[in-house]
Amino acid sequence: MRWGDARRSDNVEDRGSGGGIGVRHIGIGGVVIALLLSWATGRNPLEMLGLVDQVEQGMSPPAASAPANPNDPRVDFVRAILGDTEDTWGAIFQKAGRTYTAPHLVLFSGAVQSACGGATSASGPFYCPGDQRVYLDTSFFQEMRDRLGGGGDFAQAYVIAHEVGHHVQNLLGISQKVSAARQDVRGAGGLSVRLELQADCLAGVWANQAQQRHQWLEPGDIEQALNTATAIGDDRLQRQAQGSVTPDSFTHGSSEQRVRWFRAGFDSGDLKRCDTFGAQNL
Ligand SMILES: [Zn+2]
Fold it and tell me: Which residues, 6+ apart, have CB-to-CB distance to 273 below 8 Å?
């Protein structure tokens, strides 16, 4: 993927050093629980403290950020991809007579506080509607390569575009409608899955437009991204974790569904093809 000529976004923040896990908020009870959890699950107690903090604190004010170092090649890549999503969605919104408010992207290491609560690198990349920010752990891309067999520039760009897709859903009021109907959102055909598959489709719309602008995809890029979509599909993750799939706890959709919806966006470049909520078959 030749992303060198993409416009760099100024909305990438770095909380690598300052974004601690807020130990000061955690009482001794929380620490004991974290140690017990860590003993029971064999995971890092600091990671568990992050999780306990998330449960205890709920809404927390976001920590201060610094602009990310533009000379870091990883930062340069993220700025290029985010910049390109800004150009893509800016143009699509403008055509529809609306204004696109670009999200910020926070790079963090280990753990971070967002307006949606605390998170650790274990939670994976996420979007917080409360502060309109995409959160990306810098170790995620490396982990994706090592553990999931993903990798390649375009596959990483796809992950960013998926999170930006959640921001687009937020701006369009789609996420709010899903939260309002929280009761029956779970399950394999539930609203949560439809929201996730729509974000995959929106990532496909971005990829279509980016390709038209830059002709920057190289042979194999799409396949690589779709393999990653497959790799991070819920069924595969669950299989790795427990040895069997539990359809009731799906949140992202199956690998096959994710590929299908990414393709729907990529092949058409049309937002209207991303109506996962109206689809009979996902
Ligand atoms: Zn998602």
Answer: 201, 264, 265
CA of 212 to the centre of ligand 1 (A): 25
Res 24: pLDDT: 36
**Residue 193 alpha carbon to ligand 1 centre in Å:** 9
Q: How far is the CA of 262 from the centre of ligand 1 (A)?
A: 12
**196 Cα: distance to centroid of ligand 1 (angstroms):** 5
Confidence (pTM) = 0.77
Sort strands 66-67 and 12-14 into parallel, antiparallel or unpaired: antiparallel
Distance in Å, CA 191 to ligand 1 centroid: 12
Question: Which of 70, 110, 99, 211 lies closest to 154 in space, CA to CA?
Answer: 211
Angle subtended at Cα 206 by Cα 154 and Cα 201, rounded to the nearest 5 degrees = 95
What residues pack around ion ligand 1 (CB closer than 5 A)? 196, 199
Q: Which amino acid makes up residue 77?
A: F
Domain boundaries, the chain: 12-274
Give distance in angstroms: CA of 99 to centre of ligand 1.
23
Beta bridge partners of 105: 12, 134
Q: What pLDDT score was predicted for residue 61?
A: 46
Phi, psi of 30, rounded to the nearest 5 degrees: -65, -40
pLDDT in the model for residue 218: 83
| Locus of tokens 């092949």 | 267
What is the structure's pLDDT at 17? 38
- Distances in Å between the alpha carbon of 102 and those of 52, 105, 133, 188, 207? 31, 10, 9, 31, 17
> Mean pLDDT in runs of 10 for the chain (282 residues)?
89 68 43 58 54 42 69 90 97 95 93 86 83 88 66 82 94 85 63 89 95 85 78 67 59 84 94 93 88
